[in-house]
Amino acid sequence: VQLQASGGGLVQAGDSLRLSCAASGLTFSTYTMGWFRQAPGQEREFVAVIRSRSSGGHTYHAESVQDRFTISRDSAKNTVYLQMSSLKPEDTAVYYCAAGRGVILSSIRNNDAYDYWGQGTQVTVSS
Question: Residue 125: is its pLDDT beyond 90?
């Protein structure tokens, strides 16, 4: 299984970015896909998740990014996206995508619930 994250970069506050995570080696539609981020000196934190098709494909976002970030998935391309707008300096972090099979609703925000992780893509937001 491989998760290849891309789309990060250096932007100014208020700008937008779209992250992509291309998945291979798994049955994409059966996996819950998530985005997490880790800022320097901090623990990796939940950003957003989109559940598998069989679980209804519902999306959930962290309160800190609600109304600014949107997660989506394209099953034809085996890719999950994170559309980020109105970026803030505090959004600066390495962003990781993750895939989990059978992730229950109460665990969607937990790192341990996911089976596979991408390599991360750096997002830096300058003020």
Answer: yes
Portion of the chain with pLDDT greater than 90, in percent: 96
Using DSSP, state whether 51 is helix, strand or coil.
Answer: coil
Please report the DSSP string for 55-110 in residue order. GT--EEE-TTTTTTEEEEEETTTTEEEEEE-S--GGG-EEEEEEEEES--GGGTT-
Residue 8 CA to residue 96 CA, distance in Å, equals 11
CA distance 68 to 91: 11
Residue 6 · residue 120 · CB < 8 Å: no
Predicted confidence (pLDDT) per residue in 26-38, tens digit = 999 999 999 999 9
Taking the C-alpha atoms of residue 46 and residue 10, their distance in angstroms, rounded to an integer, is 21
Q: Which residues pair with 33 in a beta bridge?
A: 50, 99
In a 3-state reduction of DSSP, which class is residue 8?
coil
Asked whether the beta carbons of 73 and 50 are under 8 A apart, the reply is yes
Sign of CA dihedral 25, 27, 30, 35: positive
